[in-house]
Structures are given as structure tokens and as C-alpha cells.
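#struct-help
A.M.: can someone run this one for me? Single chain, 510 residues.
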Amino acid sequence: MTLRRFATMALTVGGIGALAVASGLVDVRVDVRSSTAQAIDLFGGDDDSEPAAPAEPFWKDGAAGASAQADQPPAGRVPSFADLAEQASPAVVNIQTSRKIGGASSRRHPLEEFFGPPFEEFFGMPERNIPSLGTGFVISQDGYIVTNNHVVEDVDKIEVHFEDGTEREAEVVGRDPKTDLALIRVESNGPLTSLPLGDSDGVRPGDWVVAIGNPFGLSHTVTAGIVSAKHRVINTDPDPRRFDDFIQTDAAINPGNSGGPLLNLRGEVIGINTAINPRANTIGFAVPVNMAKQILPQLRSAGRVSRGWLGVYIQAIDDDTAELLDLEGKQGALVSKVEPGGPADDGGLARGDVIVSFNGKPVDDMESLPRLVAASPVGSKVDVEVLRKGKRKKFQVLLGELERGEQLARGEAPSRKTKLGLQVQELTPQIADQLGLEDASGVVIRGVDPGSPAAEAGLRRGDVILEVNQDPIGDVGDFRDALDATEKGALFLVRRGEAEVFVAVKPEAG
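D.P.: on it. C-alpha cells below:
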């Protein structure tokens, strides 16, 4: 089914439309030839240190130990949600954002490939602001607000509107595209009304829930329904690198609800409304609040999330596969490929292994493994139990970091992408042949950001970097290590066609 990250409402010249973003949170790769083949590229970040989380949560937790039955109205009585809505609404905010397009925009226009970088200036496209709407909710009295990443991603201005008419500008504290969550903050002269965070693990299908948000700009709209299902995987992204574990609800949510709270009858947040099926008005999806609890401390302290990386491609096990592998059931995740040089490779895992246990926790199905790995600390040693040709084997694996592994697997140079503004990849024999090179080594530049230090130094797509600071470069790993070893910049030996030249590139100041 086609799914839509719905909650940002984009206001365009032609009318009102939902900003559609492919939904999905599992960090997997889907082979278009097989709906089961996926990859756990639990890769890593921009540095080698794991962000330290605060010792105590900075939000207010819900009632500890409350039973699920406490959420339900007395038998035979129709529930009223009026008191709940009245108490929760002051903590729910309308988020209005805007971003500039046109003029001297840093966003590259597709036609620049044909007309060059001054495309917009040549055609006289005026600079203009594009507004959009979303929802959020206050989780601490000092102004921290949770919303969706797609509500505040790539915007130039964020305004938060409270129920009492107060308006405040907000700044982004941290974002996590893989769960579509973001943490923003506003300044306040006094304590703000906040919502307690509940326990999404204790929620059951059939429990009553209430959603409060700003659908189509209609501020503080209250809708109610039930939890329809849990642990939904709705990934339809053609390049999915996320972690699906959605709560499904039939409470009405629409464009503009994005980032708003899904509440139980105690007024506790049990989910963050995120996506809808646009072909149905009773199917919506919310990120479980327990998932948010795992990452909010890191967003607050570091602005990003550090996740474990195992480095294996996996697929589900169907009946035929189980029979051919002599498995007793379909539990586990079948390894279809091990990332060369990744943690699993170093730990001894191999293609054809069936991962049945990760760090002492059972792997019931393919979808559960990415979540287990991502929740594990970077640099930790974990026990991975597999079935290999009918025999159980246990391996100890030292986990890497998700983003770093992802970028290395893609052949990029992650450590200096933002400072130098270039991306490289391995110089394979096929690429060397396309460039007319016979025996070249090094890495090839596959992209240069306009206006970056690399662009100003004259580097181009297709240049081959042979040396960095007079040290030979054999692959992307060498390139990354060479850049990590210097803060002053880099002297590149570049081959362009038959010529070889030195190019000095310095990072931007600050």
C-alpha cells in the first residue's frame, strides 16, 4: 500500500496539499526482485564517540505501574474525552515553518546540469517563502517540544503557536530522520504546561486513544479512536534505512497532525502521530513513545542519535527456505550478505547463517533484528547466535556505528563531507574504464557541493584523488583516515584525464 508521512501541510500557490514523504523506519535495503531481501546497514555517525545521555529523563513520565484497565471507561458507559482534551491542549502546539526557494538558494536546481549553477539567476526566478504546518507537544516545562523530523527538516524559520495565542520562535535541538522524530525548544518566561510520557509497550489493540493536532491548519482538533494494531512495518521507501515499529490507530489524523501526540485516557503520550494511508481515513500510524524515550536524551545532548551497526544483509524465512535449510520453523533472520570489513565479517558471521539470538534476546523475525541492533551501544561486544547448516554457533561481535558504516558502504568520505563539500567512492575497474584510466588507484569524486571549499578549489566530479598530504590513497578508508588526521585542510594530488595536479583545499573557518 502507498503510505504518506502526512503531518506537514504545505501551503502552495495552487492550494493546500500534504507534503508526501515515503514512510518507513527500518534500516534495510529491499531488493526490487524479491520482497523479502533486505539489509541491516546499521551504520554510523560523524565521530567516534557515543553521545552521553543525561542520567535522568528531562521529561515527566506517566503514572508508574498503572494497569491497562485504568485506561478504559466503566462497563456500559460511553467515554467522554472532554476533560482529557481540556487538560492536554495547552501542551499541544501548532508549528508553522517556512523555507526560502529561488534567488541565491543553496538547493541545487535539476536544470543546472544543462544550464550551469547560475540557472535561477539567468531565468530570474524570485526568492520566495514556502510555509507549512505541523504539530508538536511540550515534554518539559523549560520549553522542549517533540515533533516529527519532516516538520522541521530543511526549514529556515520555526514558529510555535500555543493554545492561548502565544507565539514563540523555536530552534532545532536535534533531529533523527530514521525515526522521523525531532526535538525543538522555545524560550519562556515561566514554566510551560507539559505532557507526561506513558508506556507504549503496555498499550493493547482495542485501547482507547485520543489525537490532538492541527489538521489542515484547524488548530487543536481533537479526535478519538482505538489502537488498531501494534508493531506495524509500513516501509515503502525505495532506499529504506529506518526502523518501523508503528502503532496503528483509527483516530482521525490528517495533514497537519504530524508530530502531535497520541494519548491514552490518562492523558499520557503513547505515540507521536507520523504517517497515514492516503487511501483510507481510518488508518494512521504513530511512533511508539518508548522508541522516542530511547533517543530523546541523545537528541538533547548531541543533536543526533548514535546507533549500533552489525553490517549484514538479511531476509525473511518463508516455508520453502526453511525446508531447504532444514529449519524447524521460520524464526530468525537469514543472512544473504555480510558487509566486507564490517563488524559481522570481523566477528565470523557468514552468508547463509540464520541469526536466532542477538545479545541474549530472541530474533523472532527479520524485522526485530534491526531494532535490536540499533538500540545497542556503539562499540559494545554482543553475542550473536546463529544456525549454520543445522548447528548452533555463537559469535562475539564488536558493533560499529550506523552512519559511519552506511557512508563507507556507499563509498563516501563521511568525516569531512560538511567541511570540504565533496563525496568520493571507490575507483572500481568499471569506473576507471569509463574515465579512460588503465592503472589508476585512489578514489573518484562523485559529487562536489556548490560553493563548498572543494568547489572553490576547483575540484570536479570525476577527478581521481591519488594522494592526500603526500600519502597514497588506496580506497575510501585511506581517504577518510587521511582527512581525520588533519584539521588544517588537505593537499590533494588529483588526476584529471592525463594530467596530475596538486590542489589545496581548506575547510571553512569556524
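A.M.: thanks! The chain has a mean pLDDT of 78.
D.P.: also worth noting: The domain at 411-505 is CATH 2.30.42.10 (Pdz3 Domain).
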